[in-house]
């Protein structure tokens, strides 16, 4: 019987690895035979029960996590949970960390985790900040402190010349500390330098969007050449906005969005000019583009080509800004308080400026304007 169980386990491991390799994803699971050999078949394993009772996992989630970690006593997992609680992690944050990195349940917290937390505290992270960061990106705790985390931090600090900026960049994406700088960060920076992007703009991009420097330098070079070919000056901040926009989607997705604009009568030249004016117009979803165009063209009567000249509209909320302001503007026109409103003034101004320009300005002539505007917002939000 013992020989049969071990042989079954060996066959299962080979089948699991072969199936995983065929899909380019290698996942190691605990052999079923060994699990049966060490647990009662009359109920869930100790690991599953622990994850349900101690971590609040559903049966399904606990079973899934148990494929990647196995223990028969609570000492080590208890030690991890107490360790994280002592460092300010909430129950939800602990659960998130365990879901993403189940093997931490078997870690030696004092030897492998504590030194990394102490270093991150020493450079300026507070306990709440670190709990939030590590629960969303626990992979950071798997990296070598001396070989990876500290050298990466020093590289970023040398670039920013500021501990504060370095910490804020890490908060935006902790992966910047664990990826090889020689393979990603430096080559991507050199791609941007080589096409004429000022160093100040490169550092601004690294500070605001550190994730963008962790992709293939080959793909980045393709994108910057495309943006330059469109006619956007590489020395401007708009150039980087265009790079970010194109980097956020595949070519096929981008083409689908262009097709949506074409359906509304935009020529390829108008699409190109819209992208030049406001590159983020291509980051709106296809559904959002359709909804905004439908409202402005079919319900408000704006010409489609007029909207093409104000592409920043597609970064605004349809429900919270575009609809209530458009409906309110129609009321102003019907009252004869205004004769014409450009799309930029109507939709791109801040809420404070909009109220000053179109509510406070006419308060003597129409004292109920503010109430009317608030009603338009409520109607829009309900719909």
Automatic annotation (TrEMBL):
Key words of the record: Transcription, Transcription regulation, Transcription termination, Transit peptide
Pfam families, alphabetized: mTERF (PF02536)
Superkingdom field: Eukaryota
Transmembrane intervals: none
Entries under SMART domains matching the protein: Mterf
Gene3D superfamilies: Transcription termination factor 3, mitochondrial
Leader sequence residues: none
PANTHER family on file: CGI-12 PROTEIN-RELATED, TRANSCRIPTION TERMINATION FACTOR MTERF15, MITOCHONDRIAL-LIKE
Family: Belongs to the mTERF family.
Protein name: Transcription termination factor MTERF15, mitochondrial-like
Organism (species): Gossypium arboreum
């Amino acid at each position: 019987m013992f020989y049969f169980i071990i042989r079954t386990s060996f066959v299962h491991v080979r089948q699991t690895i072969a199936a995983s390799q065929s899909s380019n994803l290698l996942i190691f699971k605990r052999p079923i035979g060994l699990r049966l050999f060490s647990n009662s078949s009359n109920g869930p394993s100790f690991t599953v029960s622990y994850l349900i009772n101690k971590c609040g996992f559903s049966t399904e989630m606990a079973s899934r996590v148990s494929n990647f970690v196995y223990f028969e006593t609570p000492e080590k997992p208890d030690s991890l949970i107490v360790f994280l609680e002592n460092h300010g992690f909430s129950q939800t944050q602990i659960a998130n960390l365990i879901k993403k990195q189940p093997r931490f349940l078997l870690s030696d917290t004092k030897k492998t985790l504590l030194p990394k937390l102490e270093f991150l505290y020493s450079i300026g992270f507070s306990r709440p900040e670190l709990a939030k960061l590590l629960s969303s990106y626990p992979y950071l705790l798997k990296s070598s402190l001396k070989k990876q985390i500290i050298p990466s931090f020093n590289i970023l600090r040398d670039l920013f010349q500021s501990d504060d900026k370095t910490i804020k960049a890490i908060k935006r994406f902790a992966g910047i500390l664990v990826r090889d700088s020689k393979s990603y960060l430096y080559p991507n920076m050199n791609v941007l330098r080589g096409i004429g992007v000022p160093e100040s703009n490169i550092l601004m991009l690294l500070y605001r969007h550190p994730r963008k420097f962790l992709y293939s330098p080959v793909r980045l070079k393709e994108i910057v050449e495309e943006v330059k070919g469109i006619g956007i000056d590489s020395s401007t901040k708009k150039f980087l906005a265009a790079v970010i926009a194109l980097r956020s989607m595949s070519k096929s997705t981008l083409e689908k969005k262009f097709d949506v604009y074409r359906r509304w009568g935009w020529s390829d030249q108008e699409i190109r000019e819209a992208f030049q004016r406001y590159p983020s117009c291509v980051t709106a979803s296809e559904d959002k583009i359709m909804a905004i165009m439908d409202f402005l063209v079919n319900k408000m009567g704006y010409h489609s080509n007029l909207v093409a000249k104000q592409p920043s509209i597609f970064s605004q909320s349809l429900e919270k800004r575009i609809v209530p302001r458009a409906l309110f503007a129609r009321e102003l026109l019907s009252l004869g308080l205004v004769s014409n409103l450009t799309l930029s003034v109507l939709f791109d101004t801040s809420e404070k400026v909009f109220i000053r320009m179109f509510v406070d300005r006419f308060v003597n002539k129409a004292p109920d304007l503010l109430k009317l505007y608030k009603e338009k917002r409520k109607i829009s939000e309900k719909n």
